[in-house]
Design goal:
Largest sheet of chain B: 7 strands, mixed
Radius of gyration of chain A: 13 Å
Low-confidence stretches of chain A: none
Structural class of chain B: mainly beta
Strand content of chain A: over 45%
Number of helices of chain A: 0
Number of strands of chain B: 11
Helix content of chain B: under 10%
Largest interface: A-B, 22 and 23 residues
Strand content of chain B: over 45%
Structural class of chain A: mainly beta
Oligomer: heterodimer
Shape of chain A: globular
Helix content of chain A: under 10%
Mean pLDDT of chain A: 93
Order of helices and strands of chain A: EEEEEEEEEEEE
Chain lengths: 110, 115
């Protein structure tokens, strides 16, 4: 079946560091791809999405590009802040349900 | 706009008791999902509905778990009898036309502790 693999955490960075969280998917066809963020004590929130190859999703300084040739959707941010500390989930669509990765916990220290 | 609303936010009860979790999806959404999140297993899809009809309940762990959606604006997840291993955060999510690759919108969850 379809699956999403994202880098295992936890990831610890200093404020203003560059962030990359890798994500690869296995679905055939052209699923939509998503990044969700979960802050402590809250539900998952949609961070960004891309619906077709070469699309770039962006929000709050985060970006991810839909790469069909490498089946990847890596999340990047040029300068992280303490407030970005959260768990990040990559997910793919394409059917009646989303397939989520296991999540990557990010901690940003001042 | 109001998001997905779950109640209660926290529930602590003794094993053997019946537990009912409630969810109000976003108005107009035609899909509703129930998830469970634990440290050990991560995020698991339990069941989902389309237009109030259960479509896939293969993630429901045992017969002790049941879910209903009597109308488009309300769903329940019930555990009877509850056990300590059911302790987790339960999330409800809704979406519009999920088959069109639409995102899901999550509630803030119910943190369930079974003593």
């Amino acid at each position: 079946g379809d699956s999403v693999t994202q880098m295992e955490g936890p990831v610890t960075l200093s404020e203003e560091a560059f962030l990359t969280i890798n994500c690869t998917y296995t679905a055939t066809g052209y699923p939509s791809l998503f990044w969700y963020v979960q802050y402590p004590g809250e539900g998952l929130q949609l961070l960004l999405k891309a619906t077709k190859a070469d699309d770039k999703g962006s929000n709050k300084g985060f970006e991810a590009t839909y790469r069909k040739e490498t089946t990847s959707f890596h999340l990047e941010k040029g300068s992280v802040q303490v407030s970005d500390s959260a768990v990040y989930f990559c997910a793919q669509g394409g059917s009646e349900k989303l397939v989520f990765g296991k999540g990557t916990k990010l901690t940003v220290n001042p | 706009d109001a998001g997905v609303i779950q109640s209660p936010r926290h529930e602590v009860t003794e094993m053997g008791q019946e537990v009912t979790l409630r969810c109000k999806p976003i108005s107009g959404h035609d899909y509703l999902f129930w998830y469970r999140q634990t440290m050990m297993r991560g995020l698991e899809l339990l069941i989902y509905f389309n237009n109030n009809v259960p479509i896939d309940d293969s993630g429901m762990p045992e017969d002790r778990f049941s879910a209903k959606m009597p109308n488009a604006s309300f769903s329940t997840l019930k555990i009877q009898p509850s056990e300590p291993r059911d302790s987790a955060v339960y999330f409800c999510a809704s979406s519009l036309q999920q088959y069109r690759n639409q995102p899901q919108h999550f509630g803030d969850g119910t943190r369930l502790s079974i003593l």
